[in-house]
Amino acid sequence: MTENNRKNEILVLLTDRWCDWEASYAIAVAEAFGGYEVKTIAIDNVPVKSMGGIRANIDYRIRDYQNFDNTAIAILPGGLSWEENDYEEITAFIKNLAEKGITIASICGATTYLCRHGFLNHVKHTGDSAELFQSQEGYTGQDLYVPAQVVVDGGFITANETAAVEFAYEIFKLLQVDSEEEMAQWLDNFKYGAVR
């Protein structure tokens, strides 16, 4: 895909008390250096407050988002409300994304939500713990659970709550935000430190 016709919109799906740090590496680099445009999306257009107290304005309401021609990826940061809500509108939206072949990247509590709604039953995946996933009604993907920081398979990127750096790196590779060498250097610096 050439620069002129690649999809360049990144959707960040926000819920109440979203974990502001979990997608921050990915979206900052992709927007500032990768030529992508980050947009927020939620059930309604009321600003959503993060765990850190950041109020994020919403660019799109899910029900109004109908044209996926420019959608490169959807990122679901974790947060305290994923386990407390069924979010039927979000579930339908994620099904729509998956059917259109748009990668869904989830971390922390968002992976638990995907597991509870059956999205991870047929792809290799990870999350905060196998035990947590096994306690979720609707989950039958135990044999595909991988105890890892991040797993990429079948149109899904899943990561546990401690994997914001590795999560970003897999998103960078998918979006080709830089050369392989530069992305590998970024991972090394942010995982192990620039000074050792």
Please render the helix and strand layout as text.
Layout: E1 9-13, H1 24-32, E2 37-42, E3 48-49, E4 55-56, E5 60-61, E6 71-76, H2 88-99, E7 103-107, H3 109-116, H4 130-134, E8 150-153, E9 156-159, H5 164-175, H6 180-192
Parallel strand pairs: 1-2, 1-6, 2-5, 6-7, 7-9
Antiparallel strand pairs: 3-4, 8-9
Helix pairs in contact: 1-5, 5-6
Description of the molecule:
The structure is a single chain. By secondary structure, this protein is of the alpha/beta class. The protein has one domain (9-113, 156-189): Class I glutamine amidotransferase (GATase) domain (Rossmann fold). The chain is built from 6 helices and 9 strands; from the N terminus they run βαβββββαβααββαα. The strands form 2 sheets. The protein has a 7-stranded mixed β-sheet, with helices on both faces. A two-stranded antiparallel ribbon has the order 3-4. β3 (48-49) and β4 form a beta hairpin. α1 packs parallel to α5 and α5 packs antiparallel against α6. The longest helix is centred in the last third of the chain and has 13 residues, at 180-192. The radius of gyration is 16 Å and the shape is globular.
